[in-house]
Design brief:
The chain is an alpha/beta fold. It contains 17 helices and 25 strands. About 35% of the residues lie in helices and about 20% in strands. The strands form eight sheets. Strands 14-2-1-18-25 form a five-stranded parallel sheet, covered by helices on one side. A four-stranded mixed sheet has the order 10-9-21-22. Strands 17-16-15-19 form a four-stranded mixed sheet, with no helix packed on it. A hairpin with a 5-residue loop joins strand 4 and strand 5. The N and C termini lie far apart (about 75 Å). The protein binds flavin-adenine dinucleotide.
Length: about 525
């Protein structure tokens, strides 16, 4: 039996979701990409040169399009590889984080962890365009799986339940309560009697209610939440309905957050991933600009004057310091790092660079000896969510049904949980991931574990954070200053976009930055 208080809580939650969605739309997070094709960079002055700082996707796209237009381009990159946050860790790779801890990755051949980006929405048209142009094979990323688990320490006695069960019960109960509100004439001011009839019919169909507008254990609700005994053949073929959970538990589980998450425009299906790991995109971009890149080049100073731009960089292997000069510069270095690089940019731009904090996140890959989530739990890709620090585990979308190992994402932590995990040694992080992830697969999780790797983004030397975190205030005060062409220098990267923390944002920012820099060059 549902109470009035439960009704109010549920409606409040629905309101909260709507408000959140509206806020996200205002911030631009839920809108379509603005991609309109490659920019027109015709008329470049012969011999005009551009230094691009950083070979993430933003830097490499700038270099690719500018050199196609006739500019003489050179890229300076701190690491010994291109791609930046677009990166996959494979068996044999070594990674050293800030603080000095080094991990040697031990994943089996063909398996990997994507420490950064891992999914591509179908409407990120810039990225999809260049993936096709540069020959990156894409496959579906299984984003939404009704069979994944949801776990909240405050609900269902701390036991995980299937997403489908909790989501069906949330919708069923909300439908029943709304039906009651209609019958009690609470909505008479808003609805005509014809509206009320139509809405009741909709609620019955959407919420799987019976003829009396009740959400109950029966074969109708079982069509959404699943069965105690599924339909079969022969003598025992008749299905047996399952029992809905108490609504109090359903609300406490915060399943609505997961439901709202899947409704977020950026998170909607269809999503994609490159075959062989996200790093394939960085590699494909790098093939287009490889002759332009100087690796192991740590930019330490950016200076511009009437004559041009001078960039000082140190060779990370030898320590030797060199100066490179050009007419123009596209700086695609993340803001936290750029803020520490000596420069003579305009004071307002410097303030903007310093004003934007970065989020943190931690990802942990765990290789399991067998794909028990498939064989034992019938989970093929998708996520299981938890209120613990690891936030979720995500099941691999490749090598489905194979015998042998699989690498699952054992954590995608953010906020306080990410800082707690980042404060641990890599070994302690794996231990925490195993302890917390065991809630979903008790008995098998630890037993099948073979090897793991983790990346805490606050400890990544070349970003010192996950992504730029703008808010309404910083957008208002600093965004236009940040993106403005400052004489000969323009900034590009996900931080210079309204599609923050998406590769699409890095690419859109890059195309916009070089279009304006080109215009500036033509006017010179
Ligand atoms: C955990 C996580 C999850 C994400 N998930 C997704 C996702 O699912 N889908 C998606 O589309 N996006 C996702 N993103 C966001 C995406 O990774 C970024 O938006 C994008 O890769 C940023 O590209 P960029 O070119 O702006 O910066 P970067 O890729 O960071 O490139 C910057 C480059 O500058 C170099 N550099 C730094 N300092 C110096 C220096 N001093 N001198 C020279 N070079 C320097 C760096 O080495 C790097 O190569 C995620 C990011 C993270 C961290």
């Amino acid at each position: 039996m549902t109470t009035r208080r439960q009704l109010l809580t549920a409606i409040g939650m629905m309101g909260g979701t709507a408000a959140l969605y509206q806020a996200m739309t205002t911030m631009g997070h839920a809108s379509e990409t603005q991609y309109k094709g490659a920019p027109d960079l015709s008329g470049a002055r012969s011999g005009a040169s551009v230094l691009v700082l950083g070979s993430g996707l933003a830097g490499m796209l700038a270099a690719y399009e500018l050199s196609k237009a006739g500019y003489k381009v050179r890229i300076l990159e701190y690491q010994n590889r291109a791609g930046g946050r677009n990166w996959s860790l494979y068996g044999g790779d070594t990674y050293t984080e800030l603080g000095g801890a080094t991990q040697k990755v031990g994943f089996a051949q063909g398996h990997y962890l994507n420490p950064g980006p891992w999914r591509i929405p179908h409407h990120h048209r810039t990225l999809l365009h260049y993936c096709k142009a540069f020959g990156v094979a894409l496959e579906p990323f299984i984003q939404f799986n009704h069979s994944g688990y949801v776990h909240n320490a405050d609900a269902f006695g701390g036991k995980p339940v299937r997403y489908r069960e909790a989501a069906a019960d949330f919708e069923g109960n909300v439908a029943e309560l709304l039906g009651k509100a209609i019958d009690q004439k609470a909505l008479d001011a808003q609805l005509t009697s014809e509206d009320k009839d139509k809405l009741k019919e909709a609620l019955r169909g959407w919420g799987m209610l019976d003829q009396d507008m009740k959400y109950k254990a029966n074969l109708f609700s079982a069509e959404h939440r699943g069965y105690d005994r599924p339909p079969g053949g022969g003598v025992d073929g008749a299905p047996i309905a399952s029992q809905p959970f108490p609504f109090r538990d359903v609300v406490s589980s915060q399943i609505w957050k997961n439901m709202a998450f899947f409704m977020n425009h950026e998170m909607q299906t269809t999503m994609f991933q490159p075959v062989g790991g996200m790093g394939m995109i960085g590699k494909a971009f790098a093939r287009q600009v490889q002759t332009m890149i100087t690796f192991n080049a740590k930019v330490t100073k950016i200076h511009q004057d009437k004559a041009g731009v001078t960039v000082t960089y140190a060779d990370t292997a030898s320590g030797s310091v060199t100066e490179a000069t050009s007419d123009y510069c596209v700086c695609a270095i993340p803001l936290g790092v750029l803020n520490q690089i000596e420069n003579n940019l305009a004071p307002a731009k410097k303030s903007a660079i310093a004003a934007v904090p970065y989020s943190n996140s931690v990802k942990i890959g765990l290789q399991m000896a067998r794909r028990f989530w498939e064989t034992d739990d019938y989970i093929y890709g998708g996520h299981s969510f938890t209120s613990q620090d690891i936030a979720l585990i995500s099941y691999p979308n490749y090598h489905l049904f194979e015998d042998g190992p699989g690498v699952l994402l054992g954590a995608f932590a953010s906020g306080a949980g990410a800082y707690r995990l980042a404060g641990m040694t890599p070994e302690q992080r794996i231990e925490a991931a195993l302890a917390q992830g065991s809630v979903f697969h008790p008995g098998t999780y630890r037993k099948e574990f073979q090897t793991g790797a983790s990346v805490a983004w606050s400890r990544v030397p070349w970003t010192m954070g996950c992504c730029a975190r703008w808010n309404e205030e910083t957008r208002k005060t600093h965004y236009q200053e940040l993106v403005k062409v400052d004489d000969r220098v323009v900034l590009a990267g996900e931080h210079a976009s309204y599609v923050g923390c998406w590769m699409e944002g890095a690419l859109l920012s890059s195309l916009d930055a070089i279009s304006r820099l080109h215009k500036r060059a033509l006017e010179a």
